[in-house]
């Protein structure tokens, strides 16, 4: 029986799939060779659906109430709902040990330590990308996204993206931060596009998901994507090309 992946749709992108967070789970399922199907959920419907089905919250809101996000999965073979991309990957690796592992050789702890560093590296991206996400969403989600993100950032959607010299400085900062990640990839002995060489692991899924996110949102012919694809010897373009066979949207 197919696992259900709950994802957020956009009719403006090929295949509907655009979210970096849900791409982590899509890559995971495809790499592990696990059959799945997608159920599309608009932003305002995530919390009601999660409460109805019993999908666990992923964090708490400032007022202490549960906060529900996607991705989430339902595994009919165990009748289990799981949310949050890394917890989903851990669950799948435990439950299906005969599938390719994203945490080989007991590297779960080591790979988990990578994510906070990487998320700090890509912090310069957020104000560039949030307005692009807003424009990408379906009408059913865009109003919700505007309201919630403007509350977080304290600016209107139109004020968020940096402009002029500030944009140049912030873009160069992102390039510099990505360089720190590229240095880690260079330590794989030149054996392949992945951080461990020839086989992808969770770190690759994490980095690739935020990389393909840029290509999808900006478009492969945009100057922004051409920049990222060429930086650091084309390291990050090579990464998502190495995972291209696992991009299937079902």
From TrEMBL:
Coiled coil residues, start to end: none
Species classification: Eukaryota, Fungi, Dikarya, Basidiomycota, Agaricomycotina
InterPro entries: Glutathione-S-Trfase_C_sf (IPR036282), Glutathione_S-Trfase_N (IPR004045), GST_UstS-like_C (IPR054416), Thioredoxin-like_sf (IPR036249)
Protein origin, superkingdom: Eukaryota
Domain annotation GST N-terminal: ranges: 9-100
Protein name, per record: GST N-terminal domain-containing protein
């Amino acid at each position: 029986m197919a696992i259900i992946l709950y994802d957020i749709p956009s009719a403006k992108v090929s295949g509907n799939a655009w979210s970096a967070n849900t791409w982590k789970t899509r890559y995971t399922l495809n790499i592990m060779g696990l059959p799945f199907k997608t159920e599309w959920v608009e932003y305002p419907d995530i919390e009601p659906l999660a409460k109805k089905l019993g999908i666990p919250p992923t964090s708490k809101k400032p007022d202490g109430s549960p906060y529900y996000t996607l991705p989430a999965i339902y595994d009919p073979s165990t009748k289990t709902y799981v949310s949050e991309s890394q917890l989903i990957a851990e669950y799948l690796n435990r439950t299906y040990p005969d599938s390719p592992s994203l945490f080989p050789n007991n590297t779960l702890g080591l790979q988990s330590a990578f994510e906070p560093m990487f998320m700090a590296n890509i912090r310069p991206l957020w104000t560039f990308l949030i307005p692009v996400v807003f424009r990408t969403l379906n009408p059913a989600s865009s109003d919700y996204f505007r309201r919630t993100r403007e509350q977080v950032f304290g600016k209107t959607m139109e004020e968020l993206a940096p402009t002029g010299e500030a944009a140049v400085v912030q873009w160069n900062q992102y390039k510099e931060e990505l360089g720190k990640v590229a240095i880690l990839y260079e330590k794989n002995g030149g054996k392949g596009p992945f951080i461990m060489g020839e086989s992808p692991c969770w770190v690759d899924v994490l980095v690739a998901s935020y990389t393909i996110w840029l290509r999808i949102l900006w478009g492969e012919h945009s100057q922004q994507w051409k920049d990222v694809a060429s930086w650091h010897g084309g390291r990050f373009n090579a990464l998502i090309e190495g995972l291209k066979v696992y991009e299937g949207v079902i």
